[in-house]
Amino acid sequence: MRELKVVGLDVDGKRIICETDDSAEKFVLRSDDRLKAAVRGDWVGSNQTAIDVEVPNMLRPKDIQAKIRAGASVEQVAAAAGADLARVERFAHPVLLERSRAAELATAAHPVLADGPSVLTLLETVTAALVARGLDPDSPSWDAWRNEDGRWTVQMAWKAGMSDNVAHFRYAPGVHGGTVTAFDDAASELIDPNFARPLRPLAPVAQLALEEPQAPLSTPTEAPEPPPTTKPPRPRKTRPAVPAWEDVLLGVRSSGGER
């Protein structure tokens, strides 16, 4: 249990203000019959043994700083704890300075590539990458927070057109500025030595033939040949029947009748 010390009475004179030894948190006690009986050592009753204590829903200073160090904002901590924003800012300020310093040191670290740490720093590398892509090299903002394993995550945020982009790196302090390794695809593309490649390459789309191919046009010197015409077959002429010689002598018609 934590011990409280009395600071004084509230302005209405009906409540007692207490605080912890480090003056980090304050509490309010109602001056009712149960509190007076507890101070006298009297037994008030089994249903009145508890003392009503108004404890604001506040985090301890070290809890506030732990959440801020892990990446939460002042507004997020204040809203989650239902605490006053100014109080959270007071304890968060030194941790925010720590995060800002870690992000600054990370920009001077050297990106780890496939063949080892780069000669250029992280800031020099991403600046060259943004310039090669036609983006403003002064637009990025930097932030950092400490993970549960004690390592730092560094975030770079920048704007390209209407889109907001972020890239994350893992920062390891060390000699000559330490090193940073890419934590996501955006970070990997930023430290890629091929600066001219876009951040999000698009696959080439095959060109589709949407129109039917046209027949080749004939040259003006060549006249189109008419289609061949087929002549109808001529009717065969029937030759007149020639009477036999004996019919001529006997005077018989060619049809076989007698005259």
* Helix-strand makeup class: alpha+beta
* Helical amount: 25-40%
Which sequence of strands runs across the widest sheet? Answer: 6-5-10-9-8-7
Shape field: elongated
**What's the number of extended β-strand segments?**
10
Rg to the nearest angstrom? 50 Å
Reported for the largest beta sheet, the result is: 6 strands, mixed
Instruction: Provide the residue-averaged pLDDT.
Output: 75
Helix/strand order, N-terminal first: EEEHEHHHEEHEEEEHH
Q: DSSP helix count?
A: 7
Protein name: DUF3071 domain-containing protein
Domain DUF3071: 1-171
Region (Disordered): 211-259
InterPro entries: DUF3071 (IPR021421), SepH-like (IPR047682)
What does this structure look like?
The protein has helices at 33-40, 61-69, 74-81, 85-107, 122-132, 185-190, 245-250; strands spanning 5-9, 15-19, 26-30, 53-54, 110-113, 116-117, 141-146, 152-160, 163-172, 179-182. The protein is an alpha+beta fold. Among the domains are: 1-55, no CATH class; 103-190, no CATH class. The longest helix has 23 residues, at 85-107. The chain is elongated, with a radius of gyration of 50 Å.
